[in-house]
């Protein structure tokens, strides 16, 4: 079974940023796909599909590793 | 003797963009250094120091190779 989670990430501005975030998130265990709806200068929606349930802490760490900030998806 | 030229490049938004442009320009023959004053969402000033005189056509090609647009520096 696949799990899908969408989170908001700030600070992403271009395709290189998309690549960086996608690369870091893809390294998380169980991740099958990462899709980014880039909103340069605002919050980008990042959707992650995985075989395992991901917690926001590990997603936040991966996003930070890429150099960006995970923003609460309740915002 | 060193030559210095400053050109305007549009479309650069982040440090990755700076790296891409710097990398392509550094590959040009004679280039010693590349400095970018990033202006995300506007024109970024790119200053190139080289031992040989560079023409704007080769600079424009390198910038395009990185995925950005050289704008006339008379503008």
From TrEMBL, chains A, B:
The keyword Hydrolase appears for this protein = no
* Keyword Metal-binding in record: yes
One GO term in the molecular function aspect is: metal ion binding
Pfam families given for it?
HMA (PF00403)
**Which InterPro entries does the protein's record reference?**
Heavy-metal-associated_CS, HMA_dom, HMA_dom_sf
Task: Supply the PROSITE patterns for this chain.
Answer: HMA_1 (PS01047), HMA_2 (PS50846)
* Coiled-coil boundaries: none
Q: Which UniProt keywords apply?
A: Metal-binding
The HMA domain sits at 3-71
Per the record, the domain of life is Bacteria
**Under what name is this protein listed?**
Heavy metal transporter
Q: Which organism is it from?
A: Arthrobacter psychrolactophilus
């Amino acid at each position: 079974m696949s799990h899908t989670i969408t989170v908001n990430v700030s600070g992403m501005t271009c395709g290189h940023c998309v690549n960086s975030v996608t690369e870091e998130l893809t390294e998380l265990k169980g991740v099958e796909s990462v899709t980014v709806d880039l909103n340069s200068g605002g919050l980008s929606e990042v959707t992650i599909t995985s075989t395992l349930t991901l917690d926001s802490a590990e997603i936040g760490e991966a996003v930070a590793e890429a150099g960006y900030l995970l923003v609460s998806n309740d915002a």
